[in-house]
Automatic annotation (TrEMBL):
<dbReference type="InterPro" id="IPR029032">
    <property type="entry name" value="AhpD-like"/>
</dbReference>
<dbReference type="GO" id="GO:0051920">
    <property type="term" value="F:peroxiredoxin activity"/>
</dbReference>
<dbReference type="InterPro" id="IPR003779">
    <property type="entry name" value="CMD-like"/>
</dbReference>
<dbReference type="Pfam" id="PF02627">
    <property type="entry name" value="CMD"/>
</dbReference>
<feature type="domain" description="Carboxymuconolactone decarboxylase-like">
    <location>
        <begin position="26"/>
        <end position="109"/>
    </location>
</feature>
<protein>
    <recommendedName>
        <fullName>Carboxymuconolactone decarboxylase-like domain-containing protein</fullName>
    </recommendedName>
</protein>
Amino acid sequence: MQTTPSEANTPDYLPSVYKQFLNRYPEVAQAQGALARAVDQRSPFDERTDRLIKLALAIGAEAQGAVRSNVRKALQHGATVDEVRAVALAAITTCGFPTAIAALGWIEDVTTADR
């Protein structure tokens, strides 16, 4: 059985509301994690490409936490900061200028925090 990280041993950058979710609803967190793993296993894409796709979806949904998470994961899997920024720039014509600018701000927050 998969274990769910407790609030005490999760990374500092995770939002407190997510840490509380892990503690309050461990069975839901485990089920969501299992679903995510099943979807990932079916992906024909390499991890880097998969994370850039998920980043694009997160930007389109204006999901700040998902944008930040997928920026970190895309970089961990070999994407460059320029590639991550290019995903946000592509959002200008499909999602709108304000959405793209917000995403660029979230990307900068993540990439400058890691320096």
